[in-house]
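Re: weekly structure request thread

Next one in the queue (148 aa):
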Amino acid sequence: MPLQDPVAVYTARTNTEAQIVRHLLIQSGVEAFAVEDLSVVGLWMGGTIPGVDTPKVWVDRADVERAVPILREYEQRAAERRLAEPTSVSAGPGVEATCDECGECSPFPPEQRGTVQECPHCGAYMDVGADESSGEWQEVSDEEAADD
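Done, posted below.
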């Protein structure tokens, strides 16, 4: 049934979040509708531009008082989940890399694994955390090749 006096009660960050909030409200007995960001205004050659239209969840004005505590609980749980998540990729172990130019070994944070950085000792560019064996070619004799 369409809403008689619609009110936007929640502005979501994504279309998926809008649908989650809508489903949560419906499960609690509050009729809700989600309006997703489907506008072509935000489209361009490289994809979409976020935030042109924001996804919203709508309820009838008469249901706002019932929706507010549900939305507060959702926000509280979402905040708790964000706090429980690691704050950065650096939760893993650091990366040791050896410079090809000077031979010195240097520590790097894990988020720099697979990148090229300057050696802190000599300033040359070096691969950080690259698998040493992946870039090297091995000589295979004709006999070994024939066995494969």
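Residues 64-84 form the longest helix (21 residues). The chain has two domains: 6-84, 89-130.
Next request, please.
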